[in-house]
């Protein structure tokens, strides 16, 4: 830690994409996602077109493609689910590489794969080119209720604190000879999770106290211009 | 004497679970003083602090800040006058950047635009953190975060700065830097601590809180050298620390 730019998803840069206003990027992402989701699954070439659009945007943003690719791991559980579909779905069967699979299932899997992947790439591109602070300001400008924006702001701020606390608890556990290697150890892990929850809850109360002490009455005040 | 900045009279408080933390506390702090509030763990120090800006309302007794009673209609004014710096800077600093965080307090007071910006810059200058204005707080060192927490309260231009364990978790260099900063401020300070050398270094006067009552109030040097008082209230000087040696050193 100690670097000036601090989010694991954000890739520092000064490309035209980085410089675009955050609310514009957010609106573009939303429009893009809605279009993708509304596109019939059989329009194969159109999906290729979407991919080309994303590739062009990423190229302009100068974010290394590998940077995005590595963060796409988050999609894996959906892919596993998509891969299961052709086998478990009903309907007319067809042969694929010598295995009998369900035709509607195959189509559904393709839809999930294509739409999901496009969505993940687009979201990661937004996250890589926009700082969390600007994203929040963008959401506020798009008239998202300020309570929601505040909650997201707190989440971003305290994610690192809580992750760090979790890491320290794990190290403390392991220092006493514990490692979560089998299912018998789960109760211990669960208790740690409970302790973490209580600690976070109490921290939330202390944060609120500190805010009230500085005159907080329910709405965040105007922010100073960035100097 | 003039109206004290802090006027605590007969404050008693029991937590909702029945645990009584304070049994009638009297405390006066006058303008320009730097007072240490000493006491062992569990003496009720933090509970008392939460009374000073009206987070907790006393079960009995009154608190007044420069003559303004700490009651619900005055809370806004009281919180402007009493600036509390909490022990864990992560509790206090919650915005995305140092600048936004320092602006939070004065922003709540209604400051806007250049006046707000000026407050932020001034407060950060006082703690030597101006160059970090655009950094996220969680990327600073612990000592730096503590200083930003102080700035976030100074930005409200309080009449009294209340610090809860300001030296806890600081390395010796950060500790000294913070002491230099606090000495340089012209604001009245109430410092809650069990770091006795720090109290001696910074506060001419000390008050001892033990088991929910004030048991001593006087010059810090006299209190720290009163063996009977110290041991009766679980106050111990760190190994090798002798206030007398420091005084003779300073004299000689």
UniProtKB/TrEMBL annotation, chain A:
Coiled-coil positions: none
Keywords: Cell membrane, Membrane, Transmembrane, Transmembrane helix
GO cellular component: ATP-binding cassette (ABC) transporter complex
Pfam family, one: CbiQ
Transmembrane segments: 44-63, 72-89, 109-128
InterPro entries: ABC/ECF_trnsptr_transmembrane (IPR003339), ECF_CbiQ (IPR012809), ECF_transporter_component (IPR051611)
Name of the featured protein: Transmembrane component NikQ of energizing module of nickel ECF transporter
């Amino acid at each position: 830690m100690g670097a000036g730019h601090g989010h694991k998803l954000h890739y520092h840069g000064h490309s035209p994409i980085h410089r675009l206003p955050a609310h514009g990027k957010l609106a573009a992402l939303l429009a893009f996602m809605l279009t993708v989701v509304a596109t019939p699954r059989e329009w194969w070439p159109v999906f290729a077109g979407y991919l080309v659009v994303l590739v062009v945007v990423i190229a302009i943003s100068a974010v290394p493609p590998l940077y995005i690719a590595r963060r796409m791991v988050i999609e894996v559980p959906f892919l596993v689910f998509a891969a299961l579909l052709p086998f478990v779905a009903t309907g007319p069967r067809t042969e694929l590489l010598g295995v009998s699979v369900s035709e509607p299932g195959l189509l559904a899997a393709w839809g999930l794969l294509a739409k999901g992947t496009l969505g993940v790439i687009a979201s990661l591109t937004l996250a890589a080119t926009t700082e969390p602070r600007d994203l929040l300001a963008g959401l506020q400008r798009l008239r998202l209720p300020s309570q929601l924006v505040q909650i997201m702001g707190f989440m971003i701020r305290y994610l690192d604190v809580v992750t760090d606390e979790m890491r320290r608890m794990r190290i403390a556990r392991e220092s006493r000879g514990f490692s979560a290697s089998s299912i018998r150890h789960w109760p211990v892990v669960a208790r740690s999770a409970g302790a973490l929850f209580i600690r976070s809850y109490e921290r939330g109360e202390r944060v609120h106290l500190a805010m009230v002490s500085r005159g907080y009455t329910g709405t965040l005040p105007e922010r100073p211009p960035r100097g | 004497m003039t109206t004290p900045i802090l006027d605590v009279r007969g404050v008693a408080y029991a937590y909702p679970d029945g645990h009584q933390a304070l049994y009638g506390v009297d405390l006066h702090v006058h303008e320009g003083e730097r007072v240490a509030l000493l006491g062992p763990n569990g003496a009720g120090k933090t509970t008392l602090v939460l009374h000073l800006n009206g987070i907790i309302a006393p079960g009995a007794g009154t608190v007044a800040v420069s003559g303004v009673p700490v009651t619900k209609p005055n809370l806004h004014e009281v919180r402007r006058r009493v600036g509390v710096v909490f022990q864990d800077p992560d509790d206090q600093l919650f915005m995305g950047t140092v600048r936004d965080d320092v602006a939070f307090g004065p922003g709540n007071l209604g400051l806007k635009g250049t006046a707000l910006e000026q407050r932020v810059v001034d407060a950060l200058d006082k703690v030597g953190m101006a160059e970090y204005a655009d950094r996220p707080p969680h990327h600073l060192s612990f000592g730096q975060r503590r200083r930003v927490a102080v700035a976030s309260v100074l930005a409200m231009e309080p009449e009294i700065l209340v610090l809860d364990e300001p030296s806890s978790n600081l390395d010796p260099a950060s500790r000294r830097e913070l002491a230099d900063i606090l000495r340089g401020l012209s604001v009245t300070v109430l410092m809650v601590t069990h770091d006795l050398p720090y109290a001696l270094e910074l506060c001419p006067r000390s008050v001892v809180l033990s088991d929910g009552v004030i048991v001593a109030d006087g010059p810090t040097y006299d209190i720290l050298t009163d063996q009977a008082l110290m041991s009766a209230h679980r106050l111990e000087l760190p190994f090798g620390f002798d206030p007398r040696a420091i005084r003779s050193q300073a004299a000689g």
